[in-house]
Amino acid sequence: MSGPLGELGQGAGKGGGGGGSIREAGGAFGRREAAMEEKYFREKEMEQIENLRKHHQEEINHHEQEIQRLQNEIKRRKNQIKKLKHDDYDSD
Prior knowledge:
Shape: rod-shaped
Order of helices and strands: EEHH
Oligomer: single chain
């Protein structure tokens, strides 16, 4: 993998940076170490994205349940109003 500073794992000062003795030495082991590190961070990022996605879905579910609860409450109150109207006519 190549970036603006050179190819990762090519040794200190060549884009591989001072990431440890293996990476500083460069060569195949340095490239392998850099690739493993990149893979690790990509997996961590994917894990965080999935956790965020789950969190948002839980929030959506919560709000949908709250909407349903409030709709049921509105329906109950409307029924109470209807009942009161009928009671008014019955008392006459």
